[in-house]
Amino acid sequence: EKGGFEHFMIKEIFEQPKAIRDTLSCRVADDGKSVKFDELNWSPEDVNSIGKIMITACGTAYHAGLLAKYFIEKLARIPVEVDIASEYRYRDPLTDSKTLCIIISQSGETIDTLAALKEAKRRGARSLAITNVVGSSISREADQVVYTWAGPEIAVASTKAYTTQLVALLLLALYMGRLNGQLSAEKETEILQDLQKVPEQCQYIFDHADDVKQLAEKFKNKEDVFFIGRSMDYGLAMEGALKLKEISYIHAEAYAGGELKHGTLALIVDGVPVIALATQRDVEEKMISNIKEVKARNAQVVGVVQDDDTEVAKTVDYIIKIPKSDNFVMPVMTVIPLQLLAYYAAVVRGNDVDKPRNLAKSVTVE
Ligand code: F6R
């Protein structure tokens, strides 16, 4: 059932091109140039009436929500708040009938997320669930549902569910931006065409998986790893750190590149690995300054960059290249080497990769 793979997690990492293709294909118009959502069928008025969007989720799904804030605010210019479900419930949130609540959950059964959805509905919000499980509790509770077509995810650490959540959320941002007139048809087509290339481009990352494995071997006895990034790469840094902690049990932390000098630099000492995500071209120069700050303290830096980068490569010890794409599309591919790093680190440390200690696949207790 693992199809020749040693673990479900690595099988699911390699299934991402198919999962992404399946999530995309039913939402692209026949000419390949615009987004359609038959299951939503919104009018411009449906989008114009949204005062703000509340995204609520847990764990990896929450990290997808962090990126969705960039997608939606930049492409559709609608304000977005992102909340951890267990926090949302108890903070007397500003949610009303002008709020669209987007709930993200792979399993559709996470109890805190379900409760947050109920709370948002109680306050009069419209609700939209992004979930991977047809007929799940969350899919039944929400007003509307957008399914990620990732297929069953067995490994406890979420991989293909996350990338398909990013795809669904980016499509949704494009859809809303077109409906409310904030996004031009040309820009929509440009991003969509880059998104459609992703399943094929993933092969390049898989072909270089051994480089990531070597890094995992090099870092296997480290006690702390730092992930840094700016803009969308900051959200990805959080996901990379979670994945590493979850299955390799190496302590990891994510920092916004600009935040290091506000305390964290104290922890960057000789030999500490820093995974520097620098795929976002508009903040590349700033990331290079942040990389220099950690290099000056003798960190071992892995730069994760677009494949035509020349500048970051000059400042780091190791480089991981990601096929070039639109800024909004980059995260869908950039997370894959981070998943691989966590996976190989867990394997070399002899951990139970698919069932990490103390964790369950779907968390139905509060
Ligand atoms: C991490 C992971 C968890 C889940 C979280 C939410 O790899 O899988 O953080 O993302 O428990 O689960 P769902 O998406 O099923 O609500």
From TrEMBL:
Protein name: Glutamine--fructose-6-phosphate aminotransferase [isomerizing]
Chain's role: Catalyzes the first step in hexosamine metabolism, converting fructose-6P into glucosamine-6P using glutamine as a nitrogen source.
Swiss-Prot/TrEMBL keywords: Aminotransferase, Cytoplasm, Glutamine amidotransferase, Repeat, Transferase
Domain of life assignment: Bacteria
UniProt keyword S-adenosyl-L-methionine, yes or no: no
Assembly information from the UniProt record: Homodimer.
A single MF term (Gene Ontology): glutamine-fructose-6-phosphate transaminase (isomerizing) activity
SIS domain mapped to chain residues: 42-182, 215-356
EC number: 2.6.1.16
Record field: catalytic activity: D-fructose 6-phosphate + L-glutamine = D-glucosamine 6-phosphate + L-glutamate
Compartments reported by the entry: Cytoplasm
Record: active site: 361
Provenance organism: Megasphaera hexanoica
Enzyme class: transferase
Organism lineage string: Bacteria, Bacillati, Bacillota, Negativicutes, Veillonellales
